[in-house]
Target: LuxR family transcriptional regulator
Amino acid sequence: MIRVLFADDHEMVRIGVSAYLSSQSDIEVIAEADDGQEAIDLALEHKPDIILMDLVMDHMDGIEATKEIVQKWPEAKIIVVTSFLDDEKVYPALEAGATSYMLKTSKANEIADAIRATYEGQSILEPEVTGKIMNKMRTKPQNDLHEDLTEREKEVLKLMAEGKSNQEIADELYIAMKTVKVHVSNVLGKLEVHDRTQAVIYAFKHDLVN
Model:
């Protein structure tokens, strides 16, 4: 059974969605919350497989609740279920740690399918949300990505461009291998590339190395 915590300040919404989900053979709603703080408390108490999180609630909104839950329990899988598609809600929710983003206009069976997919490790986003993310990526100046690198990360990138292995980088900078791996991971993440080769190509294109 996929154990679900549902946080929403509208009781009728909770009743309707919870009734449908509980009718599924593989989903069980184990707890309900009507505000962000209660969602945090129940999430940390029950450690559900999936948390359905409304964004606009009394006392503490879903974005703050999501952020605190993920900080205290990084393995949490949170599906935002909301009526809002504006940038002030979408980006902060995803940055806070939401795994998937659904609209309340979705059908009950679509939310159930999103729960199953998120439980299996997928990220389910409304088409409008995907479009917003893609547009943001297109408009983000690519030559600004490396400005987020620390001085140490720039050193690591230069040594990567020289073809040095993690062990050789560790030896040259007098740091632990584990620390090198963290720096390499940070470099790839900040440059938005998938491997060392792409990072090195980025470095040469932007004159970060000779």
